[in-house]
Amino acid sequence: MSSSELTLSAPPPTRPLGLRKNGKQWHPSKTAFRPTSHLTTYAKRTASRTALASTKAKEKEMKDEKEEERQRRIQAIKTKRAVKEEKARFEKMAEKMHKKRVERVKRREKRNKLLKS
């Protein structure tokens, strides 16, 4: 009787953590699937969402500033080219016409430009 009592009270033998039977020792050993182990709380989720939203807003603001600066540079180049073109056109007119007539045409075009805008 005493021998049977000893065997009943002893814990069941556990498998030793030695080599894997299939030979793939480089793989991590599997554990039980616990779906609730990696869940985050609602507060953490909302905090991460607000942080992400603020980061995106900052990125958008920076991109908009960069694009605005780019558009400003492009506009400056366009206006410089237009002024240069107009100057060249008036110089070409001055070769053919009198100086006073070119001045008169300039004034007239300036008035027309003001009326159009």
List the helices and strands and how they pair.
Layout: H1 2-9, H2 42-96, H3 99-116
Offer a quick outline of the entry.
The protein contains 3 helices and no strands. It has 117 residues and is mainly alpha-helical.
Task: Please characterize this protein's 3D structure.
This protein is mainly α and 117 residues long. It contains three helices and no strands. The protein has helices at 2-9, 42-96, 99-116. The longest helix is centred in the middle third of the chain and has 55 residues, at 42-96. It is rod-shaped, with a radius of gyration of 42 Å. The protein starts with a helix and ends with a helix.
Which sequence of SSEs, written as H and E, runs from N to C? HHH
Shape: rod-shaped
State which percent range the strand residues make up: under 5%
Low-confidence stretches: none
For the structure shown, list the relevant keywords:
single chain; 117 residues; mainly alpha
